[in-house]
């Protein structure tokens, strides 16, 4: 899907920023978190708040890095959002194409209208405000 990038100036270190971002997203979208090193993590199927969440498999990778060339205490937070049709989608698609051939295109339209990137952008912006308020 796409990449969301935000820049922030903070007195916190990478580990602290990672924990704040991770906890904020866990509260908002749920899902399963997998650690990927000291500055990265992945949220699998964090779909809380999305319309028709059972139609997609969602993977969001986060990376927090230092912008040393810009100045002290400046960080870049990246979120890569990837969605794929789930097993539920393909089951409904197959059954719908056989049983209700006129109605099955509606399922595809619902899938394409699920926009986790915009949803995650809003949550990341909320998180940036939260970090600034904690300073």
Descriptive notes:
- By secondary structure, this protein is α+β, with helices and mostly antiparallel strands.
- It has one domain (2-85, 115-128): TATA-Binding Protein, CATH 3.30.310.80.
- 42% of the residues lie in helices and 30% in strands.
- The longest helix has 19 residues, at 116-134.
- Which structural category fits the helices and strands? alpha+beta
Order of helices and strands: EHEEEEHHH
Helicity range of the residues? 40-55%
**Mean pLDDT metric:** 89
The CATH architecture would be: 2-Layer Sandwich
So, the CATH homologous superfamily?
Kinase associated domain 1, KA1
Low-confidence stretches: none
Radius of gyration: 18 Å
Shape: elongated
Largest sheet: 5 strands, antiparallel
Strand order of the largest sheet: 1-5-4-3-2
Count of DSSP helices? 4
Number of strands: 5
CATH class: Alpha Beta
Instruction: Estimate what percentage of residues fall within beta strands.
Output: 25-35%
Number of domains: 1
Give the terminus-to-terminus CA distance: 32 Å
Fill in the CATH topology: TATA-Binding Protein
